[in-house]
Design a protein that fits this description.
Two copies of one chain form a homodimer.
Chain A lengths: L10 H16 L6 H8 L3 H7 L3 H24 L4 H18 L1 H9 L1 H8 L3 H14 L5 H18 L9 H15 L4
Helix pairs in contact in A: 1-2, 1-4, 1-6, 4-5, 4-8, 5-6, 5-8, 5-9, 5-10, 6-9, 9-10
Chain A binds a DNA duplex through α3.
DNA sequence: GTCTATATTAGGATAGAC
DNA sequence: GTCTATCCTAATATAGAC
């Protein structure tokens, strides 16, 4: 294991943080390499030392998210009861939506990314598997739609003004309650 | 009242239909005037006879939506009981999400539009008023977040595969049920 | 690892013919 | 009302110096 001295925000790490902020604020397509370079205090050419293309930056920015989602599902698969699996998935998704909410919103909603990932179908497959895991093989439409509303609403609800007065624990609790109501697990 | 002979898809109407489809599929920013012109079978310059700028096209595409949302709120204001107002708002939003779901998704989620409208704050004001109308002046956080999840989830749920097997009436019913659960009106 | 300078392409927008 | 031709700008990307 190599040493990680002082965890300085340098090189790629800093670029990724800047890029994510701009992607979340303006959308990926509207964020130019110039914008990222300016904000990071380097030149456009400087970016190309680290990344060959813009898409490479985009995918690297969202790498933590793209890894975290399947991890949630794997943890849920370990449970034996449906209730436990549902709680694991809802809790895991909420955790991600709250703590990486910029990335989660980009991942769920940005049209640029939808196209980029759509080519590899990985997201859709993950979601199919996860849905089946918590809904069962032949779910009733109402519950399926409730789940769709939850996952789609999570990104938006996570950054809603209604969240501001709440502390972390209350936020998790409120979102979990939404999920349970939609899935009729209350 | 002028005659509307044969309702031909011509001129602006056809351009708007094409533009909306591309905006919904690829995002506004990723849709160039060239793309719209190609798909509509005209040249880029042809677009400029009808519209001076791209933003003008964008706003005209979404005009029906931007008019429909305040109309829902006005109808809801006419009711005296909270329950009736909630049903009017939920029903109205669902109607829009189902029958203009491309436009609704663009309106709710496209970063380009968020910026364009953000400058005039009109959407935020409409939503503030509508929230207050159905939640009351001092709502509890859980219900506020439930409403946020509903409005944000509606766009995504409206085009989810889970909708496919259902007819129109069942779709409306399922989405209404989601809203009622989130707002605890069941 | 970051810079200056530049190639190349695409996008928004305009002028003026038909 | 639509076309051809063109302008200008900005965006992705590369070459090569420091």
């Amino acid at each position: 294991m190599s040493a990680v001295p002082s965890r300085r925000r340098t090189g790629r790490d800093q670029l990724l943080a800047v890029a994510l902020r701009l992607f979340a604020r303006d959308g990926i397509q509207a964020t130019s390499l110039q914008d990222i370079a300016d904000e990071a205090g380097v030149t456009k050419a400087g970016l190309y030392y680290h990344y060959k293309t813009k898409d490479e930056i985009v995918l690297d920015v969202l790498r933590p998210l793209l890894d975290a989602l399947p991890a949630v599902t794997r943890r849920a698969e370990a449970h034996r009861t449906r209730t436990a699996r549902v709680d694991e998935v809802l809790g895991g998704l909420i955790e991600i939506a709250l703590y990486e909410h910029s990335g989660f919103a980009v991942l769920m909603q940005d049209p640029y990314l939808t196209r980029l990932l759509g080519q590899q179908e990985s997201m859709r497959q993950w979601w199919d598997g996860t849905s089946t895991l918590i809904l069962g093989p032949d779910p009733d439409p109402q519950t399926r739609i409730g789940l769709a509303m939850f996952i789609n609403g999570l990104a938006g609800a996570g950054r809603d003004p209604a969240m501001t007065p709440l502390d972390d624990r209350s936020r998790r609790q409120a979102l979990l309650e939404c999920g349970r109501r939609l899935l009729r697990c209350d």
